[in-house]
Design a protein that fits this description.
alpha+beta, 5-stranded mixed β-barrel, 3-stranded antiparallel β-sheet
Length: 255
C-alpha cells in the first residue's frame, strides 16, 4: 500500500453507492487511473468542487498492488476550467479529448500525453465559441500524436518520397498518412485532400492554430480524424463522445 501524489486531470466521474464517486484520472506519473472518492457526494466533503470534469490539480491516492481501483485521499485544485461547461461546443470538444485519453492512454507514466491533454483543454477553455471546433480538432490530432500514432504528412507513408509540392496529395488511413500519386494509384484507397487541408494538419501537429475553417471544411476534418482514430486506435466499442461531438457540429451547422 503506497501513498501516490501526482498532478491529475478529472476525465470521468461516476456516482457510487450513496455517498461516493468513482473518478477516472489522467495523471502525469501514472497514466490513467481509477480512484474512489469516499464521501464525495455528501453536502460537506473534503473534495468540494475539485472533482468536476476537466479540473486539474494534485491528486493523492493510496495505491494497492494488483487492484484496479485505488482510494483518493485528497485533490488540491489548480485549475477548474469552468469555461468549458459554459459553451456547448467547448464542452463536447473537451469530452472528445477526454475520451481519447480514457480509451487509449495506459497506466504508465507519460508526461507528454498529460501535457498535450492539459494544453488542449486550456486552448479550448480560452477559445471563442466559433473557433471551438477547430481548436478541438487540433488538440485531438496532437493527442493522437502523443499517443504514438502521428500521421506521416511530409513524406509518402509507403515509398517515403517527399510530397505536397503543389501536387495532389492522398491521405490513406491504413498506410498511416499521405501518399504520393504513384503509390495512391498502386495501392488504392487514398482520399485526395486539398493543399489547405494538408496545411491545417501540419499546423495542428506542429502546435499551431490553423486558419479558421468554414463549416464544410471543419466537418471534413472531423471525419478524417474519426476515421484515422478508428483505423489505428479504436477497438469494437463505439467512440460515443466523438460521435456526440460530430453530431453536435452537424446540428449546429443546420441551424
Amino acid at each position: 500500500m503506497t501513498l501516490f501524489v501526482t498532478e491529475a486531470i478529472v476525465l470521468h466521474v461516476l456516482d457510487y453507492l450513496e455517498s461516493s464517486r468513482i473518478v477516472r484520472l489522467a495523471t502525469r506519473e501514472a497514466g490513467v487511473q481509477s480512484v474512489i472518492a469516499k464521501g464525495a457526494r455528501r453536502p460537506k466533503n473534503r473534495f468540494g468542487a475539485a472533482l468536476d470534469l476537466f479540473a486539474q490539480g494534485s491528486a493523492q491516492f493510496v495505491m494497492r498492488p494488483g487492484r484496479d481501483l485505488h482510494t483518493l485521499t485528497g485533490f488540491d485544485l489548480f485549475r477548474a476550467r469552468t469555461a468549458l461547461a459554459a459553451v456547448l461546443s467547448r464542452f463536447t470538444g473537451a469530452a472528445a479529448l477526454a475520451e481519447l485519453a480514457l480509451r487509449f492512454a495506459h497506466e504508465d507514466a507519460s508526461p507528454e500525453v498529460f501535457e498535450t491533454l492539459a494544453d488542449g483543454l486550456d486552448d479550448l477553455a480560452a477559445a471563442e465559441p466559433e473557433r471551438a471546433r477547430d481548436v478541438a480538432i487540433g488538440g485531438a490530432w496532437r493527442l493522437v500524436a502523443a499517443l504514438g500514432f502521428a500521421p506521416s504528412l511530409d513524406g509518402c507513408a509507403i515509398c517515403h518520397r517527399a510530397v505536397g509540392g503543389g501536387e495532389t496529395v492522398y491521405f490513406h488511413h491504413r498506410a498511416g498518412g499521405v501518399l504520393c500519386p504513384q503509390c495512391s494509384r498502386q495501392y488504392g484507397g487514398g482520399r485526395p485532400i486539398p493543399a489547405d487541408a494538408l496545411a491545417a494538419l501540419r499546423a495542428w501537429l506542429g502546435g499551431e492554430l490553423a486558419m479558421p475553417l468554414d463549416a464544410r471544411a471543419a466537418r471534413a476534418h472531423q471525419r478524417l480524424l474519426q476515421e484515422f482514430v478508428r483505423e489505428h486506435l479504436a477497438d469494437a466499442r463505439p467512440l460515443r463522445a466523438f460521435e456526440s461531438w460530430a453530431r453536435g457540429s452537424l446540428e449546429e451547422a443546420a441551424r
